[in-house]
């Protein structure tokens, strides 16, 4: 009997030891080291190293971005030239498929960097555009004519009279502050400008067109002007970013653009520093403020955390970004220390070599007085803010919408005939939306990864509870075996009787049997 009890007791001790060991390992690896190990694993998978699927997606998106253009068609162009407020009618979206690719130039393993050229191509998407066509005509503020006038007025006002003479010679029937043309021409194909002129002032003006990114010389002295033609099928920049192999926190951060580690555009050095990723990849475990570099706008943006929500049953973090100069760190974007533009307006003159002003669409989060200068704008945060949804752990963007509006300053200039009676306004031209919402197999990958992380996270609690239950079972059984081992094999259960004093006394059963045997022998002797 004792041998059996000892064997069971040893077995239950083994159960206790094994389960306690499992509990300790679960606590260490499932809780104390869970997040550090998870961080290492995810950072390794997201790093831009050869063989990683993330690198392949980064270099060439398997799906096109949705590139949309909304024009501000002017319904009262003649009245505006007489001093009335512009009345705007939003027309769009004209939708294009934007295919994004990065051509790798070099990798520096020592510095953990990757250098590439962005290569973009755009194709009109008739299905998404609906009834709209690239051959539609729109009337917009003439970006070339008004842009030239504004540039001369700011930089060389002494030449305004010469420009006033040259403009009608160069632009002929298009000489107006407004331009009526086809959508395809203003965006990509180009508006034709014939510079085969003999007038000295006109020739001098045309000489400034050479080398401008928005101008393309098709034949000698014949140019085509378009807003985005220079971006289609060209290699505009060389960008160097960190690969995130040595330091996962620096994944995607911009190191240099065109071999320059900073800009030479803004008055103060802090705004000239590249701060953030290139906007195509982000490190995991994001903070509440995310810095993003926009090379085409020559500045940094900061996306700020708004809320956590569900997207296709994935937990995502929602971020907003704007262009507000009310932030102290953004004061360095002012054109001059003593001259800041209205809140939410960014001057792109030095960046694009064209006097364009950048805002959020419909003057969202812009000084209220600018909204009063025109009619037809209806700012809406959800429609017009820059927004990104990130998967909460891996930091993978599942929704991204970059929204920017381009404007030109309209003001009275007495030396220019067509500008003598115009009202003062920051005049919108168009706004664009470039973004993506993951779907299909890409979204399935995110859902699978998110589900797996959730299962692992819940599983560690279930595992810990299971081992605790096994340990408790082992303890209980060991205790029972220990109690039984204290009762010897010759002993039998005892009974309780009341003594003459009224108290209970335990009497062993074998003692009773001995007493009975003694009484029987005594009776036999008497007989």
UniProtKB/TrEMBL annotation:
Any single GO CC term annotated in Swiss-Prot or TrEMBL for this entry: cytoplasm
GO biological process: sensory perception of smell
Sequence segments annotated as region (Disordered): 490-509
InterPro entries tied to this protein: CD36_fam
GO molecular function, one term: scavenger receptor activity
Protein source organism: Zophobas morio
Protein name in UniProt: Sensory neuron membrane protein 1
Domain of life: Eukaryota
Keyword entries, A-Z: Cell membrane, Disulfide bond, Glycoprotein, Membrane, Olfaction, Receptor, Sensory transduction, Transmembrane, Transmembrane helix
Keyword Membrane assigned: yes
Bilayer topology annotation: Multi-pass membrane protein
Transmembrane parts of this sequence: 12-35
Pfam families (alphabetical): CD36
Family: Belongs to the CD36 family.
Subcellular location: Cell membrane
Bias kind Polar residues: ranges: 493-502
């Amino acid at each position: 009997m004792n041998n059996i009890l000892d064997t069971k007791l040893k077995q239950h001790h083994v159960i206790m030891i094994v389960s306690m060991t499992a509990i300790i390992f679960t606590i260490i690896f499932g809780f104390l080291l869970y997040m550090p190990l998870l961080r290492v694993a995810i950072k390794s998978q997201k790093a831009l190293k050869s063989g990683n699927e993330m690198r392949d997606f980064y270099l060439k998106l398997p799906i096109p971005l949705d590139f949309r253009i909304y024009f501000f068609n002017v319904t009262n162009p003649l009245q505006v030239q007489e001093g009335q407020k512009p009345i705007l009618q939003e027309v769009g979206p004209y939708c294009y498929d934007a295919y994004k690719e990065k051509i790798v130039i070099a990798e520096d393993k020592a510095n953990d960097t990757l250098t590439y050229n962005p290569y973009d191509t755009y194709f009109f998407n008739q299905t998404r555009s609906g009834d709209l066509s690239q051959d539609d005509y729109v009337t917009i503020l003439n970006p070339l004519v008004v842009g030239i006038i504004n540039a001369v007025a700011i930089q060389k006002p002494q030449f305004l009279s010469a420009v006033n003479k040259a403009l009608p010679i160069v632009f002929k029937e298009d000489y107006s502050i407004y331009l009526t043309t086809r959508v395809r021409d203003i965006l990509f194909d180009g508006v034709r400008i014939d510079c085969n002129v003999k007038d000295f002032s006109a020739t001098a003006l045309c000489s400034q067109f050479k080398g401008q990114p928005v101008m393309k010389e098709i034949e000698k002295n014949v140019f085509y002007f378009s807003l985005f033609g220079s971006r289609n099928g060209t290699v505009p920049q060389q960008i160097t970013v960190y690969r995130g192999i040595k330091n996962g926190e620096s994944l995607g951060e911009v190191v240099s653009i065109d071999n320059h580690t900073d800009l030479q555009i803004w008055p103060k050095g802090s705004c000239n520093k590249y701060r953030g990723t290139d906007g195509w990849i982000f490190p995991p475990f994001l903070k509440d403020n995310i810095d993003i570099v926009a090379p085409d706008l020559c500045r940094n943006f900061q996306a700020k955390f708004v809320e956590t929500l569900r997207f296709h049953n994935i937990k995502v973090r929602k971020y907003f970004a704007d262009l507000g100069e009310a932030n102290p760190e953004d004061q360095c974007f002012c054109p001059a220390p003593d001259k800041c533009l209205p809140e939410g307006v960014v001057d792109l003159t030095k960046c694009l070599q064209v006097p364009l002003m950048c805002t959020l669409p419909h003057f969202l989060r812009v000084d209220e007085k600018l909204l009063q200068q025109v009619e037809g704008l209806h700012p809406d945060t959800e429609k017009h803010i820059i927004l990104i949804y990130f998967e909460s752990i891996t930091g993978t963007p599942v929704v991204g919408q970059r929204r920017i509006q381009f404007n030109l300053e309209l003001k009275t200039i007495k030396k220019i005939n067509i500008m003598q009676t115009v009202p003062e306004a920051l005049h919108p031209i168009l706004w664009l939306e470039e973004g993506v919402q993951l779907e299909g197999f890409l979204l399935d990958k995110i859902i699978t990864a998110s589900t797996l992380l959730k299962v692992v996270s819940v599983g560690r609690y279930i595992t810990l509870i299971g081992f605790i239950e096994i340990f408790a079972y082992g303890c209980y059984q060991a205790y029972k075996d220990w109690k039984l081992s204290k009762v010897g094999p010759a002993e039998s259960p005892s009974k309780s009787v009341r003594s003459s004093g009224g108290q209970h006394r335990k009497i062993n059963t074998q003692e009773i049997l001995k007493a009975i045997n003694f009484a029987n022998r005594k009776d036999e002797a008497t007989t």
